[in-house]
Amino acid sequence: METIRIQFQPNLKSKILELLSSFSENEVQIIQEDPSFEKNKRILEEELKNIESGKSKCVSMEELDLVMEKIISTYED
């Protein structure tokens, strides 16, 4: 299946849903929009810019584990 995202005026919602309901579930599935989609999108776009510009550094899971172990060990005993 393919997915599209549409924006519409609130007064059209019932008409659009009525049209979509004329199709079977195998043909069309209505997926509710995540209310925090736009906020998450902005955050991820900013993170991507930081990675592409070199402002953020990516590390492997092994490197992260080593750093975390070192930090944790400083607070033990």
Describe the 3D structure.
It is a single chain. The chain contains three helices and no strands. With 77 residues, the protein is mainly alpha-helical. It is elongated, with a radius of gyration of 22 Å. The model has no long low-confidence stretch (mean pLDDT 92).
Quote the beta fraction: under 5%
Count helical runs: 3
Q: Return residue spans where pLDDT drops below 50 for at least 5 consecutive residues.
A: none
What kind of sheet is the major sheet? Answer: none
Morphology call: elongated
Q: What Rg do the Cα atoms give?
A: 22 Å
CA distance, first residue to last residue: 56 Å
Q: What kind of assembly state do the chains in view correspond to?
A: single chain
The helix fraction, in percent, is 40-55%
Strand segment count: 0
